[in-house]
């Protein structure tokens, strides 16, 4: 019988892909592919980063011959990039010590050509997907990156308050453009931009004389930026010396993620609806550099034409290398309960799915593309990520294309296979009486191996069911590899990752259908998924539990009150419990209004949040705290002490209310709480991720194992043969 620690440690030994690129020194027959990985180091509680060169011999029409080089730990390197010709590379490095130091390294022929210390010029580098930048100019004479502006030492000004960018950006207030000139090795920190605009995702213009970037507006109020695509943004241009600042998209309130075509004639970018849901269906737009004209390539899709039809684009950022020809780009996008690879013609708007569900039912994420090749990762809920190379083959007109895919490498961690190979998965959909936008990714333990189930941690004839809704609420689960899911499945649980209405990948109408109905529509749909799976006979009807984080924790708290006897136990991770109490202390005040269909204009925010008594009543009525006295099931809260998105007081207050009720009733209710220092909303430090997973799993096992007093003896009876959309051949999911 495996423990949560044993399962987690085995699965954590599988590295995950963080990037890949085909180096410029590749030839038509031999590809040099630089692959970046990360891996959890559970001994030191850190994420290790390393790179490896994969050499692929790619004779035409044949299966590539793969040679793997040794892995190299990249240590304190923040970011690295090879120049367009391959002759040079740049590394941004921060070295810890009594005082952190920052360096820009220029490499050539395997050694450092120039080492520039920039500690006195700026603070930390940005390497995130929002502001992070590292780019070469086409002529290889300049490098641009983004770093935190140096804090003033003025005796008075250093005490002036300036907000930061919220969750994951604590202490990050002023990202700024930095240009390195390799002709004279000058490092220039550009002046503050007009309009108090924060720059990110900068690229060079085709002539290398200017920079094009996303500008994040922060006037009159800073709003948390991570996971939020509805912010006020625009595309801007500035000369490399900081002069000539101009707005490229003045008619748009949202414009982000600029990507320039190889000939410099066309800029593609994303635009989302400002205000309202934090994530939504995006438009793909293009800007003609010569004329400045902006036009729509792919518009918002209100509702797919068919159940399996194109649902629109749901993309946080476009791939850095997205152009494959003068008229086509490749992207990955949410497509119901999976992510898929799409080809988009920027002239006609035509869209082709390159990894259809019939062949690739899991999730495909693009890492790199050029005119001949594409690199992606692919996984399913029961198969780890693999690296895939796609050969792009053009038809006679040199416009239409097809892609032939080959697997370059897969997991070699033998000890982990025992914790994913025995299991199966499927998509639960078309639930009677429910909207078409409701789905769940259902992972079932041990296939038809009854003895493995009986000897599992939870034991019993059939597995207990975990209802697991996602956060957001406007996000979604994809059919992909998840350690937390597999820890639970390895202990004998069946897991249902619920994509309720409002999840991404189902059309904009579905996104908006949840607005004003949080705590009602999503709660009822979670119950519908539970009841439907219970009705199939594949799980133990007497042993259902629930867990979720953020909005998923909000739903968990609601579910416990709505059906007090329907769940044996629950684990809530950083849950929203009291929306009006959260409104003034979260980094996303607008969210509290938006999900409840109340107006909030980021260009003119209210001077006093929740000042209207009717607004207060509306928000409180949607909050789980309104019904906490009905909760009786054993509960565990897992709280990130540094959470800026859902402040810890949300979990503390719900826990305290339960404590008070337990004492008042003189009951023996179970109500526990754990707090993880040094981590935020996602509980994603290695220490918090691993230990919160152990606590979550052990707690659910405690209240569902067949020897627990609350579990009926019937749960140990013989296991019936039943299946919910049994896994098909080769580990691919079926649909029901």
TrEMBL record:
Catalytic activity: Cleavage of an N-acetyl or N-formyl amino acid from the N-terminus of a polypeptide
Enzyme class, UniProt record, top EC level: hydrolase
Region (Disordered): 711-736
EC number: 3.4.19.1
Record GO biological process: proteolysis
InterPro entries: 6-blade_b-propeller_TolB-like, AARE_N, AB_hydrolase_fold, Peptidase_S9_cat
Hydrolase in keyword set: yes
Gly residues: bias regions: 727-736
Annotated Acylamino-acid-releasing enzyme N-terminal domain residues: 6-153, 160-398
Domain of life: Eukaryota
Cytoplasm is among the record's keywords: yes
One MF annotation (Gene Ontology) recorded for this entry: serine-type endopeptidase activity
One Gene Ontology term, aspect cellular component: cytoplasm
Principal cellular location given in the protein's record: cytoplasm
Assigned keywords, A-Z: Cytoplasm, Hydrolase
Stretches assigned to the Peptidase S9 prolyl oligopeptidase catalytic domain: 481-702
Location of the protein in the cell: Cytoplasm
Name of protein: Acylamino-acid-releasing enzyme
Organism (species): Linnemannia hyalina
